[in-house]
Amino acid sequence: MPPDKSTTKVMVTGSKGQLGTDLLLRLESLKNIETIGIDIHNADITNRTVVLELFDQVLPDIVIHGAAYTAVDKAESEPELAYKINAIGTRNIVEGCSRYNSHLVYVSTDYVFDGTSHVPYLEWDRPNPLSVYGKSKLAGELELRPGDTIARTSWVCGQFGSNMVKTVLGLKDGTNELKFVDDQHGCPTFTSDLAIKLIELGLNKVPGRFHVTNQNPTTWYDFVKEIMKVAGADESRVVPIKTVDLNPPRPAPRPMNSVLKNSALKMMGIELLPDWHDTLVEVIKKLS
């Protein structure tokens, strides 16, 4: 029996991660969508044979590629593994997509920039990653085809997985000072909002490079203060420090300016993600 052409098959890599979980939840609520989630438990994307056999079985129309090596500091001591997952893994996914004319949405990062700009980064600014993680994610971008979608995002957090919101909520009932840097700037991005936009870009097969973040830049210090405030905790416990004063220092250099201007979305008339303050309130309600 021939496949049902009224159904769109969407494959999500990294399906058990914080973004992948939200992607599956939202895809499964849509009509005429068949969702296939893959993660390291059922498919090693660094194995070309495994990936191509998977594509032969699934025949996806769209692939949202969220699987990645994301241990930013650990990557400094495991560069080959970071590149193997983020670059070679992506190469294998691209080859599978090419075989079956599947549209690919690749989730990338603010770490492809060095953070020295005094203004938000545009989609057309030249990348210059400082860390192994950033370099390996840029290597993944370079594996893509002209018609694919690159969605760069930043400071990802949400209801699932490990992230800053959950970390702070776990510390909110203590009495000690909470030290966070006030000289790194970026836009917190919630997976619930990001997932919706990635699905929209994928289903509409919109090609090109996009910056996709929640709106309103902030610092880690101000973000943590807001988390404490929304959670009803003592925000005066949050103390600002400089990146150079982190103890212990972080192995991977961070871009001091991670603000991504969502210019391509705006210019193409695609609705932007909401202000992160609004989604933060919703997420903390769910986590409480």
Structure notes:
The structure is a single chain. The protein is α/β, with parallel strands linked by helices. It has a domain at 8-162 and 187-215 and 258-270: Rossmann fold, CATH 3.40.50. The chain is built from 9 helices and 12 strands. It has helices at residues 18-27, 48-58, 79-100, 132-142, 164-171, 191-203, 220-230, 263-267, 276-287, and strands at 8-13, 33-38, 62-65, 103-109, 149-153, 156-157, 178-181, 185-186, 189-190, 208-211, 218-219, 238-241. The strands form 4 sheets. The protein has a 6-stranded parallel β-sheet, sandwiched between helices. A two-stranded parallel ribbon has the order 6-9. Helix 1 (18-27) crosses helix 6 (191-203), helix 2 packs parallel to helix 3 and helix 3 (79-100) packs parallel to helix 4. The model has no long low-confidence stretch (mean pLDDT 96).
Name the average pLDDT. 96
Tell me the number of strands. Answer: 12
Shape: globular
By helix and strand content, what is the structural category? alpha/beta
* Low-pLDDT sequence parts: none
Radius of gyration: 19 Å
Task: Describe this structure in a few short sentences.
The protein has helices spanning 18-27, 48-58, 79-100, 132-142, 164-171, 191-203, 220-230, 263-267, 276-287; strands at residues 8-13, 33-38, 62-65, 103-109, 149-153, 156-157, 178-181, 185-186, 189-190, 208-211, 218-219, 238-241. The chain is of the alpha/beta class and 288 residues long.
